[in-house]
Amino acid sequence: MPVYSLIIINKAGGLVYQREFQPGLRKLSTNDYLVLAGTFHGVHAITRSITPKIPNQNAVSVTSSTTQTPTPTTTAAAAAAASPSSTSVLSPSSTSIPTPTPTPTPLSTTSTTTPALPPSTSTPSNATYTYPIPNLPLSGLETLESDKFTLTCFQTLTGTKFLLFTDPQMANIEGIMKTVYELYADYVMKNPFYQLEMPVRCEAFERGVGGFLRARG
Amino acid sequence: MSHPPRHSSMLSISNNVQTAATPSEKPLPPTQLQATSQTPPGLRVPSNRKTIYDRHLNRTRNGELSRASFAFLFGEMVTYAQRRVTGIQDLERRLNEQGYPLGLRLLDLLFYRTTSSTSSSALSSSSTSASPPNRPLRILPLLHLIHGPLWRQLFNRSADALEHSISPDTPNEYMITDNDPLVNTYISVPKEMNQLSCAAFVAGIIEGVCDGCGFEAKVSAHNQPSELWPSRTIFLLRFGDSVMEREKVLERAGVK
């Protein structure tokens, strides 16, 4: 159950690191790898934007009796608290919060009471839907499975993407990814000779990654 | 004309050195300075009026530091030293110079802590009768001090080897080996600079300690990678002629 290959893409979509860990893989030219990295970067951005939106049906039925005003405080409080199914729990607490609006008009609109949007998109105007995993910011493609390999993508907070090509039977890819990320944070980011966003040429990182991933293979 | 002009007082607020440089003008009292500017110059004093100098020196004796923050700090020190250098030698010299004052100061702290750990009460009761600090007089005790206590204070473990040069031409050369220096753990030197060892900083510390003890020495760091230890580093200590002469005299006199 080996790890086949590791690719690191910087936040601009450029290839900064590529290494194979198993012999006998078909070789791509350097240019092909660069194209692959750029293409994946684009596909990742597209998958991020086409994340399905789920219409928020249950929020309408549950909170039809509550009266609230469309203020940022209520949505923020609700979004911080819980998932969309628990809106009825939230309504007492949100009414107790003093809202900045001087005269709270009794409204029973569905858009105001829909909580638990991702923080990046939580505006009251388009709050009639939710994402498959609320409370999580949008990510893009995470895994791609085929009968020959599994591609796992992990995106860091700064936009660097780690791509791991593994055997389909392989378990605990998340743990491997975490260790690879740790090695990257240690041996690449703490190296004073590494220039940000440039190709990774760090001996210690090569050693660490090679030692870790070969041992798995 | 007793009051200095306004602009000079402004200058003295922004830069305290200015007042010292112009003794003819009457400097403002410190209270007035603080009243005029919200951020008084010089040492910043916390709200409880206790500075770092008010703390007991042994307070941080067993304190632990974050390895990651040290790595980032040292990385920035290397980047800083790398500016406007002419070559690898120059860069190593700069790193050495950064470590040197640290070695001088560490030596005092080391002696203070080793004596106070054995007789902490004697030190406070009478300073004269306290056991004399174990200041090394010969080269070998000095090397043991560096190999053991200094390394333990810096890196929490002893160095890995201590050797004397076997060549008869260079009896003044000693080598201290560290299999995995902390400063080089996260650093990968690019291929075109492979002579460089960032442990030159540690070499500077050692040099400071030697000079502080009265042993004039030049210390340099060299990479000696082995199969098992890819970042093995050897610190080469070259003692000056005066030290070697004194060493011979002390040997004849039987001083340990």
Automatic annotation (TrEMBL), chain A:
Keyword Secreted found: no
Principal location class: endoplasmic reticulum
Disordered: annotated segments: 78-128
Subcellular localization: Endoplasmic reticulum; Golgi apparatus, cis-Golgi network; Golgi apparatus
Bias (Low complexity) ranges: 78-98, 106-128
Keywords assigned by UniProt, alphabetized: Endoplasmic reticulum, ER-Golgi transport, Golgi apparatus, Transport
Pfam families registered for this protein in UniProt: Sybindin
SMART domains: Sybindin
InterPro entries per the UniProt record, alphabetical: Longin-like_dom_sf, TRAPPC
Family to which this protein belongs: Belongs to the TRAPP small subunits family. TRAPPC4 subfamily.
Quaternary context: Part of the multisubunit transport protein particle (TRAPP) complex.
Name of the molecule in the record: Trafficking protein particle complex subunit
UniProtKB/TrEMBL annotation, chain B:
Amino acid composition bias (Polar residues), ranges on this chain: 31-40
Keywords assigned: Endoplasmic reticulum, ER-Golgi transport, Golgi apparatus, Transport
KW Transport (keyword) present: yes
InterPro entries given in the database record: NO_sig/Golgi_transp_ligand-bd (IPR024096), TRAPP-I_su5 (IPR016696), TRAPP_component (IPR007194)
Keyword Cytoplasm: no
Subcellular localization(s) per the UniProt record: Endoplasmic reticulum; Golgi apparatus, cis-Golgi network
Positions of region (Disordered): 18-58
Role played: Plays a key role in the late stages of endoplasmic reticulum to Golgi traffic.
Subunit structure of this chain's protein: Part of the multisubunit TRAPP (transport protein particle) complex.
Family, similarity comment: Belongs to the TRAPP small subunits family. BET3 subfamily.
Name the record gives this protein: Trafficking protein particle complex subunit
The organism of origin for this protein: Aspergillus cavernicola
